[in-house]
Write a structure and sequence with these properties.
single chain; alpha+beta; Nuclear Transport Factor 2, Chain: A; 6-stranded mixed β-sheet; 6 strands; about 40% strand; globular; disordered N terminus
Length: about 140
């Protein structure tokens, strides 16, 4: 979380406290927290009704399928779920965020990269696409 908040503070300095990059970073942090807490109401607020979610296995899910799949996710069971290396690019009412994610905990260890596509609709940023890629362990 510190990496996200640290980056959000830097972006806020550069673009003003309510700049689109800062707004997207705040939405990213809400998304990360929602995944860790398996918060269905937050999922409904943050995910566009027509979101596409591509998981590390190559699975393709819509919003309902993604929410249903969370009962099997290791993220809520992990001790930590953190983001780092975030990069936000805003193109009008669309933002593309890339970053790195990591989970740790007993029986849970994952390193991955992600791409999130956010669209601003009526002043609210919602996820319309998620792509996750596993980072293979070094040999």
């Amino acid at each position: 979380m510190a990496a996200v908040l640290g980056l959000a503070a830097l972006v806020a300095e550069a673009s003003g406290p309510s700049g689109p990059e800062s707004e997207v970073l705040r939405a990213e942090d809400r998304w990360r927290i929602a995944q860790k807490a398996n918060d269905v109401s937050a999922f409904m607020a943050l995910l566009s009704p027509d979101v596409t979610f591509i998981g590390t296995s190559g699975s393709l899910r819509d919003r309902a399928d993604f929410i249903a799949s969370r009962t099997e996710s290791s993220i809520p069971r992990a001790r930590t779920y953190d983001y780092s290396e975030l990069r936000v690019r805003v193109f009008g009412d669309v933002a593309v965020v890339t970053g790195r994610e990591a989970t740790t905990g007993e029986g849970v260890a994952f390193q991955g990269r992600f791409t999130h596509v956010w669209v601003e609709e009526s002043g609210v940023w919602r996820l319309v696409a998620v792509q996750r890629t596993d980072i293979a362990a070094s040999k």
